[in-house]
Amino acid sequence: MDIKVLAGNRKADTYLFVAADKDIDELPEALLALLGELRDVLEMDLTEGRQLVRCSGAEVLASIAEVGYYLQMPPAEYTNS
Question: In the chain, how many domains are there?
Answer without folding.
Answer: 1
